[in-house]
Amino acid sequence: MTPTLRGRWQSRLFLMGTLGFLVTIFFMIVFGSIAPFYLLVLVTVLGFFWDIVYTLIQKWRWDHDWPPAFQLGAGIWEMIVLAALVYGADIIGMAPRPDQFLLHYSAVWLAVFAGSQSLMRLVFPRWRYNGGQWLS
Q: Three-state DSSP class for 90?
C-alpha cells in the first residue's frame, strides 16, 4: 500500500487519537504530569508536516512505497527533532525528564506502529486499498 497524503493524515490522527491517547493517559497517571499529553499533541501536529515531506520522498523511490524500515528511521528522526524542540526551545514549558520523554515517546511510537501494521487492516479492511484513507 502506498499511502496518499490525505491517507497519512487520517491514519496519523486516528492512531494518535486512539492508541497514542490511551498510552499517554497511562503515562500521565504514572508521571503525575500533563506533559505527556502536550507531547502527544505536539508530535501529532508536527507529524502533519512530516507527512508532507514523507510523501515527497516517497515519490522519488522507484516503487513509490514506504517500507516499515523507513517508518523506524522516521520515528527516530521525529524523536530527535521533538527532543530538540522540547528541551532546546522549551516549546511546551514543562519538559519531562529525558528518561520519561524517551519512555513515553517509544511506547506511543510502538503502539501506533503496531496499530498501523495490524489494527488498521482489521478495523478498516479497505484502508490499504484506499491509500491509507479510512474516510473517503
A: coil
- Supply angle C-alpha 125, 128, 133, rounded to 5: 95
Angstrom distance (rounded) from CA 57 to CA 114: 23
Identify the CA nearest to 116 among candidates 96, 132, 136: 132
Cα separation, 11 vs 135, in Å, equals 10
Residue with cell 505536539: 42
Q: Is 45 exposed, middle or buried (0-12, 13-18, 19+ CB in 10 A)?
A: exposed
Rounded Cα distance, 50 and 69, in Å:
16
pTM for the whole thing? Answer: 0.84
CA angle 16, 10, 121 (to 5 degrees): 85
Cβ–Cβ under 8 Å, residues 86 and 95: yes
Q: Which DSSP letter does residue 18 get?
A: I
φ, ψ of residue 89 to 5 degrees: the values are -95, -5
Per-residue pLDDT tens over the stretch 2-60: 677 888 888 889 999 999 999 999 999 999 989 999 999 999 999 999 888 888 887 77
